[in-house]
């Protein structure tokens, strides 16, 4: 098991980041890749979960150990795979997710992509009462520096990231007009879009 990867963020795309550590580039799938900014000046620590199946070996990365623990717990739920786990965590509100599970709020859980009533019920059955040690006290609020000219590019990247998380085009199309009213970075667009999609 690789506990973490520490290095420079070399590349960011809608599905993953590449962290260069000691001359090796690690492809790491993250809930919101655009929360990481490519930089040779900043060293980041990404806590990783190594996912191994007979046809797949992949690294999934998180900003905190608590997020990683929650991802591992979600993978134990029947019907949730790594892509679904990332989509659930992409909203950046683990406390809200844990609260919904504890309060058996199926309606809230069903707002995540690929989570229907059956999977929401399974999440509650499998995880209720087992997440107390996972709730983080504070999550880093990370923003990217960007220029005004990058606004449309930032929105396009955010839409690609939402599609990579599994949101349907019709769902995204509904919120695009609201997003266009704001001038944000890619990371902020993603966060705002997720807030709108989860309403």
UniProtKB/TrEMBL annotation:
A single GO molecular function term of this UniProt record: four-way junction helicase activity
Membrane spanning residue stretches: none
Region of interest: Domain III: 150-199
Database matches in CDD domains: UBA_RuvA_C
Coarse class of the protein's main subcellular location: cytoplasm
GO CC annotations, alphabetized: cytoplasm; Holliday junction helicase complex; Holliday junction resolvase complex
Pfam families given in the database record: HHH_5 (PF14520), RuvA_C (PF07499), RuvA_N (PF01330)
Family: Belongs to the RuvA family.
Cited HAMAP family: DNA_HJ_migration_RuvA
Main function: The RuvA-RuvB-RuvC complex processes Holliday junction (HJ) DNA during genetic recombination and DNA repair, while the RuvA-RuvB complex plays an important role in the rescue of blocked DNA replication forks via replication fork reversal (RFR). RuvA specifically binds to HJ cruciform DNA, conferring on it an open structure. The RuvB hexamer acts as an ATP-dependent pump, pulling dsDNA into and through the RuvAB complex. HJ branch migration allows RuvC to scan DNA until it finds its consensus sequence, where it cleaves and resolves the cruciform DNA.
Protein name per UniProt: Holliday junction branch migration complex subunit RuvA
Organism: Anoxybacteroides tepidamans
